[in-house]
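Re: your question about NADPH dehydrogenase

S., sorry for the slow reply, the queue was backed up all week. Below is exactly what I fed in.
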Amino acid sequence: MAYPRIASLKTYADFVARLDELGITLPCDADVMSGNDSVLSQSNVVDGMNIGNRFCILPMEGWDGTREGKPTDLTRRRWHNFGISGAKLIWGGEAVAVRQDGRANPNQVMINDQNLNAIESLRTELFDKHAERFGKTDDLVVGLQLTHSGRFARPNDKSKAEPRPAQRNEALDKKLGIKDDSAMLTDDELSTLIDDFVAAAVLADKAGFTFVDIKHCHGYLGHELLSGVDRPGKFGGSFENRTRFLRDIVAGIRATAPNMKFAVRVSIFDFFPFKPGDDKVGVPDPLSDPRLEFGGDGSGMGIDLTEPSKFMALLKELGIALVCTTAGSPYYNPHIQRPAYFPPSDGYQPPEDPLVGVARQIHATAELKRQHPDLFFVGSGYTYLQDWLPGVAQAVASQGMVDSVGLGRMVLSYPDMPADILSGDIMSRKKICRTFSDCTTAPRNGIISGCYPLDPFYKAMPERAALNEIKKASV
Ligand SMILES: Cc1cc2nc3c(=O)[nH]c(=O)nc-3n(C[C@H](O)[C@H](O)[C@H](O)COP(=O)(O)O)c2cc1C
Ligand code: SF4
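Result:
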């Protein structure tokens, strides 16, 4: 591997020198403050929601619901950990399907009348755990991420893709066995699906969630519609048509659940789908079409924020103030979405130092924040910073590059890292996520997700041995 591991950058000077070497300008504070002095402990009122600090837990599913879509003890454990994390914004917990054909796997949690009480208890237990540890919850905001997985749906069998794409895409169609237009969601089907999102939001309201995230990221349906330049009809082609899905969902929810608040998680740029090259290092798939990348510059490898910025303006028009930025897709270009040193078993060796991927997301988010200062931006992709995450988090928050620092993988291995940072406790280095990608490799191979290398609970599970075998075979 050509890139130095983060753990080998022992001092602040080492880290800054590495950034210089890569030509990356990424702010990082040498001293991280704690308590009320810390910018990360500042609260914000956003659209009437009182968010007590600048850490957010990003949505992360565990492939561990029941076949009916109810949470299990494993799901509950993850939500408990979100509650004790110390973050005051919980972005949706995890992707929750609005109906059966939109589930990304047969164990994805699904919201409907039968599952309502169980999903409500996820929220109440998270609040209880937070209250036990931190004494108050009046500044804790918890939403639910609503999704339809579109072309990445696998609702009935983990090993059987049942894609419902929004448009054709040669590189991605090939991987999913899509040969014609028969699985494409029609306009009428999308209209029905809009009603399903509205019904799901009404249930989320009943379950006490403060906001719903209308998911537009990672190649799932909402995101694919944004790039649907080839799709005919009222949901494709023009920017207006490509955002109709979101606009109609929002209008429907406003009419039926007037107290519900909104948020949108969106991939603000996308690159070509990648695949392993001869030496296993990722290369762009030659079948890729650069016109199909929302926020792409037409080269398939660069960013143009013109449309994403227009999307932010639309959110404002719709009265949505909460935005979570992410990038690309874990299925086809994970190095831009969740920078990692070790790829998942179905991935490729990183084609760039993962720090480049971290900086790319941070700078794209900062640019949108500069253009839309009145939106509240949550950023993603910080986990790869590892030991340097707190210093970068403080620097980007204090320089106004982002409003809240979103944490994904890091809270699987180190659930209460935000609490430790905010209280000034020494960070526990042995809990720092080193981006081994087991939490992605496991579900790609039909195993529940979790931090097998570092979380003692998952370390002790029988699934770990099977996962290790799979990893050995994929080397
Ligand atoms: C196991 C796992 C499950 C995930 N599930 C979701 C999800 O349900 N919804 C979503 O929007 N993102 C999901 N993500 C992406 C994360 O929210 C986040 O964007 C990504 O991990 C990058 O942030 P990080 O560098 O802090 O890990 C998932 C990531 C992982 C590792
Ligand atoms: S399995 Fe654990 S250490 Fe590996 S990437 Fe996931 S959270 Fe990080």
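The two ends are 13 Å apart (CA to CA). The pocket of flavin mononucleotide (ligand 1) is lined by residues 58-61, 94-95, 145, 217, 265, 326, 338, 380-384, 407-410, 439-440, 449 (CB under 6 Å).

Happy to talk it through on Thursday.
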